[in-house]
Amino acid sequence: MDLTWSAEDEDFRAEARSWLEANVPRPALASGDTRDGFARHLDWEKRLFENRWAVVSWPEEFGGRGASIWQWLIFEEEYYRAGGPQRVTQNGIFLLAPTVFEFGTAAQQARILPRMAAADDLWCQGWSEPGAGSDLAGITSRAERTDGGWSLTGQKIWTTRGAFCTHLFGLFRTDPDSSRHKGLTYFLVPLDAPGIEVRGFGRLDGDEGFAEVFLDGVEVTDDDILGGVGQGWSVAMATTGSERGLTLRSPGRFTAVVDRLISLAAAEQTSDPLLIDRVVQGWMDAEAYRLFTLQAVTSLAGGAKPGAESSLNKIWWSEMDIRLHETALALQGPAAEIDDGWMKGFEFALSGPIYAGTNEIQRNIAAERVLGLPRS
Amino acid sequence: MDLTWSAEDEDFRAEARSWLEANVPRPALASGDTRDGFARHLDWEKRLFENRWAVVSWPEEFGGRGASIWQWLIFEEEYYRAGGPQRVTQNGIFLLAPTVFEFGTAAQQARILPRMAAADDLWCQGWSEPGAGSDLAGITSRAERTDGGWSLTGQKIWTTRGAFCTHLFGLFRTDPDSSRHKGLTYFLVPLDAPGIEVRGFGRLDGDEGFAEVFLDGVEVTDDDILGGVGQGWSVAMATTGSERGLTLRSPGRFTAVVDRLISLAAAEQTSDPLLIDRVVQGWMDAEAYRLFTLQAVTSLAGGAKPGAESSLNKIWWSEMDIRLHETALALQGPAAEIDDGWMKGFEFALSGPIYAGTNEIQRNIAAERVLGLPRS
Amino acid sequence: MFFGFDDDQLALRDAVAGLLDKRAGLAYLQNAWTDPTGDPTWAVWPELAEMGVQGLMIPEARGGSGFDWVTMTLVLAETGRVALPLPLAETAAVAATALARDHTLLGAIASGEVVVTATAEVGQPAPSATRADWFIVGDRMFARDDVSLVPVRSVDRTRDAALVSPQAAGHPLAGGTEAGALATAAVLVGVGRALVAMSVEYVKDRQQFGVPVGSFQAVKHHLANAALAVEFAAPTVWAAAWEMDTGAQTAGRSVSLAKAMASDAAERAARIALQCHGAMGYTDDYHLHFWLKRVWALAPAFGSARSHRLRMAGQLGLAR
Amino acid sequence: MFFGFDDDQLALRDAVAGLLDKRAGLAYLQNAWTDPTGDPTWAVWPELAEMGVQGLMIPEARGGSGFDWVTMTLVLAETGRVALPLPLAETAAVAATALARDHTLLGAIASGEVVVTATAEVGQPAPSATRADWFIVGDRMFARDDVSLVPVRSVDRTRDAALVSPQAAGHPLAGGTEAGALATAAVLVGVGRALVAMSVEYVKDRQQFGVPVGSFQAVKHHLANAALAVEFAAPTVWAAAWEMDTGAQTAGRSVSLAKAMASDAAERAARIALQCHGAMGYTDDYHLHFWLKRVWALAPAFGSARSHRLRMAGQLGLAR
Fold first, then answer.
1. Taking the model in full, what pTM does it have?
2. Which residues of B touch D289 (CB under 8 A)?
3. What single DSSP character describes residue C92?
4. Tens digit of each residue's pLDDT (9 = 90 or more) over D239-257
5. B226 close to B103: Cβ distance less than 8 angstroms
6. For residue D25, is pLDDT > 60?
7. What are the residues facing A198 on neighbouring strands?
8. Distance CA A65, CA A51 (A)
9. Dihedrals φ, ψ of D259, to 5°?
10. Which residues is B186 bridged to in the sheet?
11. Is 0.90 exceeded by the ipTM?
12. What is the DSSP letter of A369?
C-alpha cells in the first residue's frame, strides 16, 4: 500500500493545475447542450487539444501525452477542481475511442482518433432506439448489403448532443434473420451523409441535449465497420464497460462538487445540524468513491480487465451525485427552485441512474455477475 | 369528517382505562414466549376473560361485549397505553376467530369460540412448512380420507408459541393430485392427538417462541374442517387479510411505543438534533398510521371488505416498528447491546417484514392488486 | 368518528375535477409552460370562480359558499392532479382564510376579479407574479404597488415566479403561513397521486425484454413505495384540514405533520416516477416533467419537511 | 500510488484465515455462544499467538513481528468473517499500539499470556470481561483489580460483556480510542462481507415458487445494495490503516470515515441478510444470528457512525 504520488505524477499535476488555472474560461461557458454554448465549448476543446490536454492518456501520435491511468485521474481531479467546462467531446473520447483502440484497424485509428482529439469530428452515440432502451438487444435499425458496402435504415434516439455532432457510432442489425445480441454490427456514420435527418429535442432541463437520428438508406462502406460484421454486441460491450465504469465519472468530478457544497454550506451560514450532517455524508461518499477508485485502478494498472464491479461503481456515483445536489438544494431552501447552478446540476444528476443502463439493470448485473446469483 | 368520539365511545374508553390501570400486572410479566412466562400470561388472559376484556368485539354469547370496531381500536389504544401484557392468545383471537365467524358452522362456533375466549383452548397457526414459506401454496402436508374422517401427515414449522398451545389450525392437502392453491383444506387439530410431536425452538432472541409440529397419521373428523373440503386456500386468505391488516397491529401499539420513545429521549437528555429529528419522524409515522387506520376503519364500518390495501398497511407498520426501535437503540448508544427492553423489542420488530407474507410479497401484492401492474 | 367526506364535498370535488379535465389538460399545460401569463392560461380562472372555487371558504355574506378546509384540501388536491398553473391555493385558501372575515376584498376574490399570490417569507419566490394583484408574504398582505419584484426563472416555468420584497407596511393577516402550508400539502398530495398514476400507466404500456416493464419486481416495488408514501400522507392532510375547521388545539402541529409528510411523499414519488419512466421522463418533450418540477418548487415552499419537523419537535416537548 | 497489499500481508492474512477456518467454525461458535468463558472457546487464543497475531504490531524487540495497521486490519477482517468471539482487536490492535513502544506488557501480549479488553468510555460494555487481565477505558488502562465490573447480558452472548468502572488512576495510553475505532471498523467489514456471502449462498439454495429465491429481482437488489455498502466501506478502512501507519495528518479523520462507513455498511448488511434469510434468519437454531448480533454490538462501539460524522464535521470546518 502506498497512497502517495510519484514525483513524476506530482510534476504532471503541477503542470496541469497551472495551465488550467491560467486557461479555464471565466465566467463559465453557457451550457454545451445548447447550440450557442456548444460552439463556445468547441473552441475550448480545440484549445485543450492545441495544448495536448484533450486526451492526456492517448499516445502522442494521436494527440495525447501517453499519460498513465493514474495521471489521467490526476488530470480529471485538476480539471474539475479548476471548474473546467463540460467536455462536449466526451462521448467520442470516453466511449468510442477505447473501442477504436481495441478493435480498430491501424487505418481506422489514424482516420478517426486524431480528428476526434482535435474536435474536428464530433461523435455521438447511436445505440438506443424507441423500442430498445434498457433492452439494448432489441435493436431493429438495419444495415443491408449493397454492392459497395451497406445501406443503413432505422431510427436512433436519446443521442446526446446529436444535433451538434458530425458523426455517429451505432449498432445496426446486419443479419435480418437474427435476434437479440446476435447479428449486430458496429458502424461509424457521418451525420452529413444523404438519407440522415437529425432532430434535436430537450432534456429534462429544456436544453437541446438530445437528438433523434432518422436513417433512410444511408450508404456506408466496410471501412465504417468497427470490429467485424456480426460482432457488434461484443464490440459495444467494451464501450459499455467504459461508460459505466471509471472513465465517464472520475472521482475528481465529485470531490469538486463536494468542495462547492462545503462552500455553499459556509455561504448559507447553515446552522441546521441535519444539513451539516448531510454535507459530511456527501464528503464521505465522495471520499469512499475516490478510495474505491484508487483500489480499482491499482487492479487495472496491474493488468486486470474492468469487470462487473463497474456496476457497483455506477450505482454509487450516480446515486451519490443526486444526494449531493439534493443536499445543496436543501441548503438553499425555497430559493432552490430557481433554475440555475445547483438546480440544473440536480436535473443533470437525475439522468445518472437512467442512462448507460438503468441502475435497476446495474443491480441485476452486480447480483448476477459479482455475487453469482442465478439469472431469472 | 368527524374525528371526535361519541359519548358512548368515551364511556367505553373510560371504563377500559380504569380497569386496565387497576389490573395490568406490575412489574411486567416475563416473556410469554418462554414456558414460565407463558403460564403467567395465561393467568392474565383468564383475568381478561372474566372481566369481559378478552374479546371485546365478539358477541356477548361468545364472551365479548359486542363492541364496535371503533371501540376495539379504543380498547387497543388503552391496552397498550397501560402497558398491558402481550396477548398470547392472539393467533386464535385475531387469525382463527375471524375465519370461524365467517366460515364456521353454528356448532363449530359454539365449540371453538367460548373456549378460545376463555383461554381454555390455545390456538397456534400451522401454515408454513419447511418448503412452503412465502410460497404458501407449496404445502405438502396431506390429509387422507379414512373411514371416520381424515388422517393428517406432514410437518409444520415457524408455529408461534406452538410448544405452549393446545390446538393448531392449518392447511393440508386433501387432493393428492392437486397442486398449488387447489386441493387444500383448512383443519382444526388438537395438539394432544396421537401421532403429533411438537418441538419448540428459539426465536432470534432465544426465547422458545417457535415450534415445529410433526404429524404422523393424526386422526381428525369432518367436524374439524373449516369451510369445506378443498376450500382451504380461500378460507385461509380471509385470515391472511386479518393478519396483514388492521387486527394484528392496531395503531395503539405504536403510539404507545412512540410515547415510550419520547420518554426515553427525555431520560437520556438527548441533545443530538439528529436523534430528536428521528424521534419526531417516529411520532409522525405512528400518527400517519393512526390516521390511515381511522380512514380504513371508516370504510370498513361502512361495509367495505378489507382489500389489498392491507398490504400497504403491513409494509408501513412493520418498517416503522423497526425504525422506532432503531431510534431507541441509537439513543442508548453502546449500552444498547444489553439484551433487554428496547433491544428485545428491536429483535421482535425485525420479524415484522418477514412473517405473515414478507414485505417483498406485500409490495408485489400492492403493485399488482392496488396499482394494477401486470403479474410476472 | 367518521374519517371521510360527505356527499356535498365529494360532489364539489368531482365538479372541479370535471372542469379541470375538460379545460386544463395536457395541451393547456404545454401552452402554459411557454406562456404562463397569457390569456389562454388564465381563461380557466373565471370559470373556476363561476364554479365557486375561489369563494369556497368565503362566507356567503361576502359572496362565497362558506365551505370548509376539508373541502378545500380535496379541491386543491385536484388542482395538483392536473398540475394547474394558477395560484388557487394562494388566492382561495390562503387569502380567503387569512383575511378578516368581513374584509372588503373577499367579494372580489370570490368573483375571480382579484388574483392573490403568496410566499412564506421575504425574498422567497411567489408564483404568478405577473398577474397577481395582491402579494402575501408570511402574515402580511401587500398591494402590487407596495412590493418590489425580482422575476426569477423557476425550474417550473408555469410558476412565473418572482422574489417579493415588501416596500410598505401592508395589511395584517391571521394564519397566512399556516394556511399556505396546509394548502400546499394538499396540492402536493394531488401531484404525488398523479405521478404514481402516470407511472403506473407508463410501465404497463412500455415494453422491454418482451414484457411490460411494470412486470419487473424492481419497478413494482418502486411504485408500491411511492404509493405507500403518498397514501399515508393523504389522511394527514384531511385530518389537519378538519382540525383547522374545528379549531383544534393541535391544529398547528397537524398542519406541520401534513406538510412534512406531503413534501417527503411527493419528492419520493417524483424520484420514482422519473426512474420508472427512464429516458422518457428525462425529456421536456414528454409531459411528466410538469409534475416533477411542480414538486421541486412546492416541496420547500411554506416550510420544508425538516422545518416542520423542527416545529413539531417543539410541540412534542423535544426541543433542546 | 498502489492501493493494495503486498505478498507478506496477504500470506499472513491467508494463514490466519486458514487457522480460523479450521479451529473457529460453526461448531466452535455455537459452543462459544453458551460457554464464552470456557476453555474450548479460549483454546484458539494461544494458537493465534503462536502464529504471531497478538504480536503482529509489537516491535520485534518486544517479541512481536513489527507489522503495520494495514496488515492488522486485513487480519481483523478475517476474525470478523468468522465472528471470532475473542478480544483480538482489543488486545492485538488497541493495547499493542496504544502502550508505549517499550512497555513491559508487550511481550506478554505477543506471547498470548495476557488478555486485554477495551471500551471507549466509562460505563460502556467491554467484551471478554471474565477472562481479561487488563481493561482499557478510552485512553487509560487498568489492571483487573482496579476496575469494578457489572456483568451485562449482551445481545451477543459470546461477548461476555460487562460495564467497566475504573477504581484507580490507571496507566495512560496514546491513541486507544482511535485504535479501537479503526480495529472495530476492520472487524465490521469482515462481518459485513460474511453476511453478504452467507446470504448469497442461502438464496441460491432456498427454493420458493419453484425457483431459488435469489432469482427474484427484489432479493438481487437487496444483496447488491448490501455488497455496495460493504465494498465501498472496505477501502476506507485500508486507507485509514495506511494513514495511521504513515502518521498522516488526516489519519484521525480517515479513521472516523472508516468507522462511520463500516458501521453503517454492516448494519445495512445485517438488515438485508436477515430479510433475505426470511424465517430461517429469525431463529437462534440457525447460525446467521451470530453475525447479526455481532454487528449490533460493534456498530455503536468506539463511536457510532453519527458520532464520527460529528467529528468529521469539525475536521471539515463545518462544525457550528
1. 0.97
2. 204
3. I
4. 999 999 999 999 999 999 9
5. yes
6. yes
7. A213
8. 10
9. -70, -40
10. B171
11. yes
12. I
